[in-house]
Amino acid sequence: MIYAPLIEVRPAQAPVELQGVKGVIFTSSNGVSAASRETTKRLPAYCVGQNTARTAADAGWQARCLGQRADELTEALLQERPDAPLLHLRGAYTRGSIARRLTDGGLPCREQIVYDQVLLPLTEEAQTVLSAQNDVIVPLFSPRTARHFANLCKDASHLHLIALSEAVADPLKGLSCKALSVSRTPDAAAMTTAVLDAAAQLSRLEGEGRAE
To answer: What is the pLDDT of residues 170-200, one digit of tens each?
Structure first.
């Protein structure tokens, strides 16, 4: 296994503007980490994903998970109508237009960028592995990194791609890869299971090949 990130998170290093805010929204653990470094104030935090909620709770926020996707969180907040205004503490690149949709739905919300996501080239090690033409399992976690990988990948014929969600899978569908699958749920635990299952399947196929 090799570790070859396609993105680097860089905190914005700017004060979090919580004046008048009644609650915050976190859609990633990166947002929690960046925001927690910039303010000591802790408010109710509405989170996408259990991992994000746990990270926020560990950092002292009054955290709750309201779904695994931005759509689920938005719908839950519009139904619950918590004290507002809210503040979505997010990365420079995000999907879902949470603040706009909540505000349009009558729940005032603004947003603040607390970290950037800078695209990275493939490492030399990753390039070597990918060019060897052996079966390789590649997990991808965001539409942006999936699109970046698709642009970098010259030959995907030997790759087993695993996408966190259908939105992540979409940029990969133009590649002529060996296999493309989508995680059962958009979280790290399900992605880990998908990678282990793919590795076990490859191991079985290799064993059958040697036995013939």
So the answer is: 999 999 999 999 999 988 889 999 999 999 9
Report which residue type is found at 2.
I
Cβ within 8 Å of residue 118, ≥6 positions away: 7, 8, 9, 10
- Return the axis-axis angle of helices 50-58 and 29-38, rounded to nearest 10°: 20
Q: State phi, psi for 120 to the nearest 5 degrees.
A: -120, 150
Per-residue model confidence as pLDDT tens digits over 151-176: 999 899 999 999 999 999 999 999 99
Chain Cα centroid distance, residue 126? 21
- Rounded to an integer, what distance in angstroms lies between the CA atom of residue 119 and that of residue 172? 17
For residues 1 and 97, what is the distance between their CA atoms, to the nearest angstrom?
Answer: 35
With a CB cutoff of 8 Å and minimum separation 6, the contacts of 211 are none
Phi first, then psi, for residue 112 (nearest 5°) are -140, 130
The residues that bridge with 65 in the sheet, in sequence order, are 47
Could you tell me the two tokens for 136? Answer: 């390789």
Residues with Cβ within 8 Å of 14's Cβ and at least 6 positions away in sequence, in order, are 38, 114
pTM for the model stands at 0.79
Please, how many CA atoms are within 13 Å of residue 120, restricted to the half-sphere of its CB? 15
CA 73 – CA 25 distance, rounded (Å)? 9
DSSP E strands: which ranges in 12-168? 23-26, 44-47, 62-65, 86-91, 109-119, 136-140, 159-163
| Better-predicted residue by pLDDT, 204 or 208 | 204
